[in-house]
Structures are given as C-alpha cells and as structure tokens.
Amino acid sequence: MNWHEKTQKRWMEPVFLLTILVLLALWIRTTRIETEWQQGGLSTFFLGFLLLLAYGTATMLRRARIPLISGYIFAGMIVGPHVTGLLTNETVLKLRVVDDLALSFIALTAGASLHVDFLRNRLKAIALNISFLTIFVFGLVFGFVLVGASFFQVTRTMSGAQVTALASLLGVIAVARSPSSAIAVISESRASGVFTETVLGITVAMDVLIIMLFTMVLALINVLLVSGSGIHAYAVSAVSGEMIVSLAVGFLFGKGIAFYIKKVGHDLPLFLLLIAFGIVKGSLWLDQVIQTQFAISLHLEPLLVCMSAGFTVRNFDQEGLRFLESLERISLPIFVLFFSLAGASLDLEALKMTWPIASSIAIARCAGIFLATWLAGTIMRDPPYQNRMAWMAYLTQAGVAIGLAQLAERQFQGIGTYLNTIVLAVITLNQLIGPVTFKAVLELVGEAKAGKEAP
Amino acid sequence: MKLAFAFLLIVFLAFSGYHLTFRRFRMPFYARPFSITGSEFLFLGLLLGPWFLNILDREAQKELFFLHAFLLGWIGLIFGFQFELAKLRRFPRGYVFAAITEGTLSFVLIFGVIQLTACLFPGAGNVVHMGDALVLGAVGACTAQTGIALVASGHGPKFGKLVLLLRCISSIGPLVPLVSFGLFFSFGKVSAANLWWLSEVGNGFIILLGSCLGLVLLLAFFLKEPRQESELILLLLSTVTLGSGLSSVLGMSPLFFTFLLGLFLVNMSREKERLYQILITVEKPAYVLLLVLLGANWRLYSIWVPVLAVAYCVYRGIVKVGAGAIATRIAGTAGERLPGLSGLGLLHQGGLSLAMLLDFQRGFSSSGTSWVVSLVLIGVLLNDIMGLFLTERLLRNATP
C-alpha cells in the first residue's frame, strides 16, 4: 500500500463515519414533530449526535496534529445555528444546562492538578513566571483594548465604563492557560525535565489564580457597570470576604469528599457529579436565601469553591490521586459537550466583526507572554536559548477561559456577547497554534522523548 | 431552580438509595421485602410528586425528559446485552426453550384474558383498550432477577439447577413480551403517526432495524481502535442518548430500540465485556430512579384500582405458577428433578417491567395510561412482597 492509499484509508473511514452521522441528523430534521415526547426526543437525539460528532471530528483531526479541544469546538461550530443550522438556537440553549456542571468539573480538576510538593521544587521560578505573566499579559491586553478601542468597530460605540470593563475581562482571561492541553501535549511527547515541570507547575497554578483574579475583576466590574458608583474600599473588602468564604466553603467540601473517599469509597464519579452540580446550584440558592432573609449580598463563587475543594482533596488527603483519576474518568463526555456547545454558540457574524480585535489581542497576549517568560528566565539564569523560546509553551488556552467568558456573558448582557465571541476567537487561534508550538519547544529544549525513540 | 433542585434531589436519592437498599439488613420481617427490592422508592416518588410535595410536578417531569429517555435507553441496552449468544449457549437447551415458553405463555394468558374481559363486558371495553391489555400482559410476564439472586444467595449452591432455571427464565423469558410491547409501541398507532411516508408497518420495521444497525455500525467504527475507559463511557452515553432520541422522534419505543441495539452490539463488538462493565455500574441507581419517576405519577383514581390490582396480581400469580410448572416440565425432560411449583420463584416483576411502564406512560400519555400504571405499581408491590416469601419457601421445601 503506497503513501497515497494509506492516507486515503486513514481519512476515508472517519469522513464516512461523520457523513453517516450528519445524514442521520438531516433525516431526523425532516421528521414532523407533533408530540411533546417527540420534541423531547429531538433534544435527546441532538445531545447524542453532538457528543459523537464532536468526538469523531476531534479524533480525526488529531491525525493532522490538531488538538482535541479544537476539534470539539470546530465540530460544534459547523453543526451550530450559524453555519449549517443542524442544531437550532433553541436546542443549543437547552443543551447548555451542562455548562455549570462542566465549569465545576474544570475548577475541581484545576484545583486537583495543583500539587504542593510538585510546586515546591521550582517555587521561585514558578512564582516569578506567574507574577510576570499576570502583570505583562494583563497589562498589555488591557492597555491595548483601552487605547485601541476607538479603532475597532465593536468597541467604538461602547461607553468608557464598558470599554474599561471589557478590557479588564479580556485582560484577565488572556492570563488563563489550559492545563488539560498542556498535560495532553506533555504525555503525548513523553517529555520530562526541569523545563517541562516548570511549565506544568505554572500552568496549573495559573488556572487556580485566574479564578481568583476573575472573581475579583467580576465583582469590581459589577460595581463599575451596574451601580455606576465607582470602586470603594467597601466593595473591595466585600469581594475579598466573598473569596475567603468561598475558599473556606470549598475547603469544607474538600474535607467532605476526602471523608467520603475514606469511609465509603465506591461510585466516586457519580458522587463527584452530584457534588459539582450541588455546589453550583447550592451557591445560587444560598445567594438568594441570604439576600431575601438577611438582606446581605453574599455571593459564593462556585468555581472558587470547587477549585478549593479539589485542591484540598489533592493536597491534604491520601486519596488525592484516586480523586483525580475519578474526575478524569467522567470528565470526557462533559468536556466534549461543553466545548462543542461553545463552538455551536460561536456567532460567526459577530466573529466577522470582532476578527481584527481578536487577532490583535492574540498578538498582544503573545508579546506579553514573551516578555514575562524572558524576564523570569533571565532573573533565574536559565539558558538564554531557553528563555527566548519559553513563550511557545504558554499559548494554549481552553476550558477555564471559555468558562469565564461565558460567566461574564451571562452577567453583563451588554458587553458579554462581544466578550464571549472575542475570547472564543482568541482561544480558537491559540488552541490551533499553542499545542503545536508547545510540542516544538519541548523538542527544541531536548525534553521530549517520543520523537527520539522513534525508529 | 425548581427543576435543578428536582434533578439534584432525584440523583441524590438514586445514588444514596441504592446503597441502602437491595441488601439483607436486619430489618423487621414485614419491612424486608421493601429494603431488598427497593419498593420504598415508589412511595418516595409519590411523596415528591404532584400529590404531596409537588417537587416533581408536571413541568419538572416534562423538562426531565432526557432523563426518562436516557434511563429507558440504558435499561434497554442492559437487557439486550443479556442476549449474548455465546453465553446463552451455556444454559442447557431445554432451559432456554422452557424460559421462552414461560414468558410467551404468561404474556398470552394475561393479555388474552384481559382483552377477552374487555370484549365480553362493554363497560370494561370502554376503559381497557387493546394497548392497555397488551402492556398489562407484557409487564406481567416479566420476572426480575434481583429477587431470585438475593434469595438464592442465602441458600448456598445446593439448589443449583433450580436457581439456574429460575435465572434462565428471568433473563430470557421477557423476550417475547418485550418484543410484543416494542412492536405495539412502534406500530400500534401507525395510522395516527407522523411518519407520512413511512406509514406502512413494513417500512417502519425496516426503518427500525436499519437505524439500529446503522448505530451499531457507527459504534463498531469507533471501537475499531482500542479505546480508554473514559472514551468508552463517552461512546456508550452518546449511543444511548442518540438511540433513545432517534426512536422517540420516530415514534418508537426507546426501550425496545436500545434493546435491539444491545442485542446487536453484544454479539458483534469485541469490546462487549468492557461495555457491559460500564453499563452495570449504574444499573441499580437507574432502577431506583425508575421507581421514583413512576412513583411520582402514581394515582389512586378510585377504590377500584387497588381492588383490580389485587385481582391482577392474583391472576398473574396463578399464570406464573402454571407457566412455571410447564417450563419445569420442559426443562426436566433431560431427567432432571425440579419442583413442579417452581413458578413460585417467578413472581418478582423488577426493572424491565417498570421500564416498560415508564415507556408506555411517556409514549401514550392519557388517563387510561395512568390508570394502567397505577394498577401495575400496586401489583409490583404485592408481587415483591409475596415473591420474596414464596421464593424462600420454594427453595426451603425443594429437595436438593
């Protein structure tokens, strides 16, 4: 079998598979819906369809070295209401009930990925990188949006407060990274070494930090946009208080999960599903109860609670690894659905409008990452060639960034749609380029083993 | 918020519930059947339903459609997985024949007599339609494995052959009733169906088998490469939801559709063992959820419902004992000595019959349907209570 035939066979099967799926969906679309039972069946069908299609597309695109997450988003985009319309807006909205659950899982996983012993070895380097990445990336993106607002069609009509809010949110989301993508690339390359460990440490710690930063920025923007009264010391202390309470509640949940693992131990995935969903809905319910009963506005941030819970189990309990394994066991369907729905929600018309600003932000973010990693590496006296290339390891963005954009979208209707679209566009770019550059840098610094052992 | 709360609550109940039930706790004598069979969750569902706490109200139940469809699909797939030809061959041939005979006979006798009653008494005919009679027959013919397994575990291996026969009947026996139910569900209302160009039953049948085989082929393609467990979970979840949704849109039974899917899968896929292991991890929570969801729609329309339920239960008991005796004769032709009253061990109705009820309730929503469901639920309770004692008695009295 020659190269041409091999390639043809490699691609024909998945293409055939996906064609069958799409034909099935097209056929179902032609069926007349008359009863509630059929209406419910239609949503259920498209739930399964989206899961299979996104998974199939992603595994097919992986052969072209495109990351899985990009595949999920791409599949969602294609079948979504803005391209082929196989999934209607109504269906997408119905299926998006899974968002909260997915976000909780991402936060639980982010917290559980953060292992104190692992971080301790390269504490100084990690702390320096995180500080510089936060300052430079946030600063450059924030400054760029603020200064360039009058040049872009999207931001031209916004008020000063709205531009500041958008710039802050874009800035803070630009800091986010993707631990899942990083871990996937590292295991795919079978990389190990000081550089790899530092990158991984920074990536997971950054994901935790980003949730805290985002919570703070969100509350401050709320003050700025909703009350319009400016930022007072009271607001800042209230936000800090909420964060502390959220972390404490998360710690208690973490202890509860650890207790469950120790005493009961079975059906952990199901239990975690319940906990994640419970935290999200419980936080909302508690907000309402405290507001109506005591007239106190205490907002528990579910992401922070979940992150803290995950961190607690991973670091203060012997069963931390088992906990992480259980999360991984059930996270795939949730993530596939979450990312493909994010793709389906991508408003391509808005994307057309936001494309210039999105690509500019991606470049500003990249510049910020380069400055931060080069400076941190120079201070740490790492090899100069490594300092020049380190930025390539930090481009990927995914779960948390999308989740944060969606949270902001729900909270701030005016700027939220644009924010979500811009963030998705930036992430799409970063997800396409990031894993490729990350893999390349691991090979360049000589820590990737997969290529070397190949015959 | 209410929907989220309802969902959270029932998932919690399903999760915590199955750990507390299906066990031989040291409970009072009268309460044991409930704790072993999980029947208490029917009452819990009733409590959560519109009659009492109204947490699972009509709107919440409508919104939880995907959960219904998913549950039915999951249970159908599990039942389909029991029909692995290689494993069925391990049963003696006479046992398999006996099991099919028992299931068919029970179904025909219950369905036939109810339908005959409806025809003979015009008053009853207005209430009980042919579909209702068929469902009553199909659910009545089912036998649960749980009760047999739980009771048999306390008696050791000395009744191996009897327990093997009972297990064989409970596994294979519901085949004909389920197929009849599935075909009735799919084509029973074909004149009112929305499939304007598929209104012919023959075409519908081709569609049913074709879409089922199509899904199996899809899954087979995905399973060509070795997959990790998380990927298998994803593939199973998506296939079940896709299959349930597809069959619902086409006006077919999700339970029957996924049963066929499971039947094809288990006999064609190399990953059947791994898939089955994933399927059974949520078997018990799924059963508890079924009980809660059915319990929420439980109504006692009139005093006649419990009276008829008792009559149905007694008649079913007689039929099962009779059909069991015939099955024992057939199984015993190879010279094996089996007790003639082995039908006493076949009274538990179990998950499949409840799944059929839920399917029927969703697909044929009317007051007649609710009436049938309420009647059968009382019957299930009575059968579970009686079944446990009678199975114990059967095993105790049987000569090893």
Question: Key terms for this structure?
Answer:
heterodimer, A: 455 residues, mainly alpha, Na+/H+ antiporter like fold, 20 helices, 82% helix, 0% strand, B: 400 residues, 74% helix
Strand content of chain B: under 5%
Rg of chain A, nearest Å: 22 Å
Number of strands of chain B: 0
| Most extensive interface between two protein chains, with residue counts | A-B, 46 and 53 residues
Report, as a whole number of angstroms, the end-to-end distance of chain A. Answer: 20 Å
User: What is the CATH top level name of the largest domain in chain A?
Assistant: Mainly Alpha
CATH architecture of the largest domain in chain A: Up-down Bundle
Helix-strand category of chain B: mainly alpha
Radius of gyration of chain B: 20 Å
Mean of the pLDDT scores of chain B?
80
Question: Can you give the mean pLDDT of chain A?
Answer: 79
Q: What proportion of the residues of chain A form beta strands (DSSP E)?
A: under 5%
